[in-house]
Design brief:
- This protein is an alpha/beta fold.
- It has one domain: TIM Barrel (Alpha-Beta Barrel), CATH 3.20.20.
- Helices cover about 40% and strands about 15% of the residues.
- It has nine helices and eight strands.
- Strands 1-2-3-4-5-6-7-8 form an eight-stranded parallel sheet.
- Strand 2, helix 2 and strand 3 form a beta-alpha-beta unit.
- The longest helix has 18 residues.
- It is globular, with a radius of gyration of 17 Å.
- The relative contact order is 0.16.
- Keywords: Hydrolase, Metal-binding.
- InterPro entries: DNase_TatD-rel_CS (IPR018228), Metal_Hydrolase (IPR032466), TatD-like (IPR001130).
- This is TatD family deoxyribonuclease.
């Protein structure tokens, strides 16, 4: 099992991060992918895979972080990101994307410009994109119709849209990751989407420390909860959880170019 989106560097893990990681391996995980949210985290994150290959990282600027950065510095940040990606050590570009609730602090024009910069870097460095899209799917769809496609692909992280929206992203070649909400009692749209996604485009995540699955909903999530998410996904798909766990692990290793050690190693 590979947690394809876990903010293990978040401050909420400061008191017990080592224990969280220990619990993750004990729960059967073989890998954890940590996506950056802002420039100040890039260098510290790059140190982690050097210590443990089971932990890999993505580098990018989360749209929710843009209000904390000066717009006039966006170009400089993207240039620095380009340089770091060129040095190796990151397996993805992101987390990046579009965020509706952040529009008052970061207008859509700026969000789109920064995202285009990320997509260009993904194409240049041959890396997949960890894509965030919240309440701005129409703008995202228009962008993806216009932009050249990153050869390594795009992963729609913590997908929460319905089946019809998913069909557009499927046609564009996206991969999809699901988090704790697939286990919530009121979940409807993501479950409908889950049923139409091709088997080879599906992976799983916890989005820790957020979106904890049932029975931990409302608490801090952590990567060791991934089996609960996979169980929820398997229930929706009507297949054994062991089969889904193996397939999503293989899909994740292929998407991230075999960066994660094989479970057999």
């Amino acid at each position: 099992m590979i947690d394809t989106h876990c903010h293990l560097d978040a401050s909420r893990f400061d008191p017990d991060r080592d224990s969280v990681v220990t619990r993750a391996w004990a729960a059967g995980l073989h890998g954890i992918l940590i996506p950056a949210v802002g420039p100040e985290t890039w260098e510290p994150l790059l140190e982690l895979p050097r210590k443990d290959a089971r932990i890999q990282v993505g580098l990018g600027i989360h749209p929710q972080f843009l209000p904390d950065l000066r717009p006039e510095d966006d170009g400089e940040h993207l240039e620095r990101l380009d340089a770091l990606l060129g040095q190796g050590g990151a397996v993805a570009v992101g987390e990046c994307g579009l965020d509706g609730p952040t529009l008052p602090g970061a207008p859509l024009e700026r969000q789109l410009a920064v995202l285009r910069g990320h997509l260009a870097l993904a194409r240049k460095h041959g890396l997949p994109v960890l894509m965030h899209c919240h309440r701005l799917h129409p703008a995202m769809m228009e962008l993806l119709k216009e932009e050249a496609w990153p050869e390594a692909g795009i992963l729609m992280h913590s997908y929460s849209g319905g089946a019809e929206l998913a069909r557009f992203y499927i046609q564009k070649g996206c991969h999809f990751s699901f988090a704790g909400p697939v286990t919530w009692a009121e979940a409807r749209k993501p479950l409908d989407a889950l049923r139409v996604i091709p088997a080879d485009r599906l992976v799983a995540e916890t989005d820790s420390p957020d979106q904890a699955p049932t029975p931990f909903r409302g608490q801090r999530s952590e990567p060791g909860y991934l089996p609960h998410i996979l169980a929820g996904m398997a229930h929706v798909l009507g297949e054994p959880v062991e089969v889904l766990a193996q397939r999503t692990t293989e899909n994740a290793r292929r998407l991230f170019r075999e960066a994660f050690p094989s479970p057999s190693r």
